[in-house]
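Record type: monomer structure entry
Structure origin: computed from sequence
Chain ID: A
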Amino acid sequence: MTARARTPALALSTISASTSRIELMRIIWALAWPAIMTFGLESLVGLIDTLMVGRLGANAVAGVGVGSQILNAVSVMNMALATGTVALVARHVGAAQRHEAGAVVTQSIYLALAMGLAIAVPMSIYAPHLVAIFKVEPEVLENGAGFVRIIMLGVPCMATCAVIAAGLRGSGDMRTPLAIGALVNVINVCVGYTLIFGHFGMPALGVRGSAVGSATAFTIGAGLGLAALLRRNGSLRLERDRLRPSLTLARRILAVGSPTGIEQLLMQIGFLLYLGIAARYGTPAVAAYFIGVRILALSFLPGFGFSAAASTIVGQQLGAGQEAHAERSAWEANRLAMSMMSVAALVIFIFARQIASVFISDPLVIDDAVTFIHVLAAAQPLMAADSTLGGALRGAGDTRFPLITVIIGFYVMRLGLAWIASTILGLSLAWVWAALLGDYLLRATLKAWRLQSGAWKKIRV
């Protein structure tokens, strides 16, 4: 039986010293492509939402963009729980302990629901105050606050979706999250389209309609994820004898995932600070930033996919005691990611203006967005290395080092250079965008050094 015919979970057990590079590439690709498609569908929905909201004007785009930044800040909880879940599940699956792997995902679901409720309720109540932090115009404030109040209702289910998907990927099942995501994203778009513009006799809710679509999708996704875990023949199952909450296991999940949560929180704060610097150049710069981010979400898909593949394969190989195979797989995943994202970089660089024009017709916004897209294109290979190598380290349970790289790369390099360019030197917006190149170069270099050092092999989860 060839690697192409095996399921991803079975393919991992075949890696050995005699596995050829081509065979290893096929195994990694078998893990990566469903994740790429899953994240791709999510990004496509984000793009479609932006296109629909874009028809309401720049203030609507900026309002949803600010609201999305707040949602991203909340999502650090998802990243923390998902990282802890995938690392522990992968280790247990690699060690042939699927019963323990099921117990991990069960506790992760409890944590997701509890923490999601604790965060979502107060943020929904104080939504206007949160949006006001951005010092945006009154119309943007109204749109952003309405979006945040509704989207927060779906946060507990969003967190549940994240940990279930992470658990399934840790077990080697990349296709179930893809199937669930495909259905959920269709629902998201349909509900959003109906309620944003008021079709089929429904009220026109504007940006609030977009939030209702997302919250509805999160809820349905959580239900489908739970159904997948209850399948008898699933690669990962809820264990009936391990359904009680376990503080010990919850602490293990949080111990591994918390550094990633802090890392992501610092990044989201950093994004807000970076956006604040860009906002000094006016509303067109803010709208251009969010358009660029949407485009980045598509071009960055291989990075996400190979990061997920690296986390799974490294975690399972370490669980099986195959440290050399884990390292070899991580480097190969990185090479594949950098190759694919370099191709994506060329495409978005050449067609930057045409791509930006799809989202909005304002010439000032288009000009700022084109410059940002060009910088993002130049950063693609570095972003691929940063994402994939970071995924490999997190799959090994080495979650503290990526946190250190964010502090050094994002805060010292990116924000420092952007502040100097805008405040001290008074340079154009293009120099603020260019500051992210130094950030990704430094982070990718540090993570490559860490993987080469082998210190991650000694991490115990």
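Annotation 1: The radius of gyration is 21 Å.
Annotation 2: Residues 1-11 have pLDDT under 50 and may be disordered.
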